[in-house]
Amino acid sequence: MQKIADLRYALAVLQWDQETYMPSKSNEARARQVATLSELSHQMFTDDGLKTLLNELDKINDLQEDEKKNISLSLYDYEQQTKIPGEFVRKLSEVTSRSFQSWVEARKTGDFKIFEPFLAEMVALKKQEANYLGYEGHIYNALLNQYERGATVEMLDRVFQSIQEPLKTCWIK
To answer: What is the pLDDT of residue 157?
Structure first.
């Protein structure tokens, strides 16, 4: 798990650099680097050996509550990630990196047509990811679940509807 975390930390540094200091002509190389690290960490995390280890750990009765929760969450993440092929993880990572640079250029020039093909590809890839993960109801439920487990579009619609009127009257005053 530490090696997987180290790969993800290195990936985060590369992505931070891409968003802050990286020269614009480095985009292709950086997209490839990000894709490689994403694919490697995905391969390591979805290895059958990790599942075996997590299942063995899950059977231990004298673990602390936080240890049990860590194992449970890791097993859930493992099950989710094994639904997504490694080559898809690579492609999504690469397109995301390229899309970011396209977005920066579009904002700088005010020409959002530059970003349009990347946005279309990202939407298509995220739909494909949702289909890999599976979902009930709205397609976005699969993606939303990655960030707010158990949340649904329907639930969030109710939340936002409940605060919409109070916010309107708050702004009017």
So the answer is: 95
pLDDT digits (tens, 9 = 90+) for 90-137: 999 999 999 998 999 999 999 999 999 999 999 999 999 999 999 999
CA 120 to chain centre: 18
Answer for the pair 84, 42: CB distance below 8 angstroms, yes or no.
yes
State the pLDDT at residue 74.
Answer: 95
Nearest to 35 by CA among 13, 18, 11: 11
Give the residues of the chain that fall short of pLDDT 70.
Answer: 172-173
Q: How many alpha carbons fall within 13 Å on the CB side of residue 151? A: 13
- Tokens at 115, concatenated: 């970003």
CB neighbour burial string for 63-75, b if at least 16 within 10 angstroms, e if fewer? eeeeeeeebeebb
41 burial class (0-12, 13-18, 19+ CB within 10 angstroms)? buried
Nearest-angstrom CA–CA distance, 17 and 43: 24
Q: 107 is written with which tokens? A: 């904002």
In sequence order, which residues have a C-beta less than 8 Å from that of residue 63 and are 6 or more positions away?
A: 57, 71
Q: Answer for the pair 132, 84: CB distance below 8 angstroms, yes or no.
A: yes
Residue type, 2: Q
